[in-house]
Amino acid sequence: MRYLVTVFWAILLSNTAVFIISAVDGVTFNAVLATAFGVVITIFIALLDTLNQDMGINDVAQEK
After folding, report:
1. Confidence of residue 50 (pLDDT cuts 50, 70, 90)
2. pTM of the entire predicted model
């Protein structure tokens, strides 16, 4: 479920960022590029999550 939410927000925020940057630069908005960028961000976040689990970072003692 958390990856589904990550995909949603990554695509939404990357589309927003690409839209704003393209509007400032005066070029046409490319939705395919923006969505692909969101997918790349999601893959990067999933890899970071996997690395954190392998290194035991998520096992740090949490306050109760």
Report:
1. confident
2. 0.72
Q: Which residues contact 46 (CB under 8 A, 6 or more apart)?
A: 3, 6
Angstrom CA distances, 50 to 2, 43, 53, 60, stand at 13, 11, 5, 15
Task: Answer for the pair 34, 14: CB distance below 8 angstroms, yes or no.
Answer: yes
- Exposed / middle / buried, residue 38 (Cβ in 10 Å: 0-12, 13-18, 19+): buried
Per DSSP, the residues of the chain read: -HHHHHHHHHHHHHHHHHHHHHHHHT----HHHHHHHHHHHHHHHHHHHHHHHHHTGGGSPPP-
**Model confidence pLDDT, tens digit, residues 2-15:** 788 989 999 999 99
